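Input chain follows. Return C-alpha cells only.
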Amino acid sequence: MKIYDVSVPICSEMPVYPGDPNIKIELRESIAKGSPCNVSSISLGSHTGTHIDPPYHFIESGIKVDQIPLNLLIGRTYVVETTSSRIDKSVLKEINLNDPMRLIFKTRNSYLWSANKFVEDYVYLTPDAAEILVEAGIKLVGIDYLSIEQYGSTTYQTHKTLLGNGVVIVEGLNLAEVEPGDYEMICLPLKIKDADGAPARVILRG
C-alpha cells in the first residue's frame, strides 16, 4: 500500500488567499546563537495551505473545527480528475455519486503550487454542483487549491451550500502525484478550540 502526502508544506513564500494573514516563521531561540534549543514563532491564518473549512467558517451556528467528528475525516475517499476549467453539473454527470461519502477533485490546480504566488484563475466548484453533491449525500469535499469558491465571488454560495448542509470542505490539497480512484484518507486538522478553520496534514493510502 502506497502512502501519498497530499498536504502542501507551510512556508513564508507560499501563496495565501488575498486578504488572509501572511505567514511569518521566525526562529526565536537558536542553538547556533548559543541557546540550548531551537524554538520558532509561527504566525499564520486559519485557512493557510492545506486546511479544513468547518461549517462555522460561513455558518454562525455551524460546528467548529474541533467539533468535526473524526469519522468524517478518516475513511474511504474517491479522487476524481477533471480537465474542466470549472466543476459544474455537467462535470458531475460523468461521476458516480451513488457510493462515495468523501469526494476529492484533482484538477490543473495541483500544478499551480510551484508558482509561489496566488493564481486567480483556478478551477472551482459552482453553486449548482454544490447542490448536487449535497443531494447525493456527500459529507466531505476536497479540492486542490486555496478555495473551492470561484475567485471574486461576493455571495460565497458554494461555501454556504456545502457548509450550510454540514459538508466539510478540505482545501489546498496537492494531488499532482495521485491517480484517480479509491483511497483511504486520513485528514487531521490542528485541534484549535472554536476555530473557523485549521491547517491539516492529509494523506491518502491506496
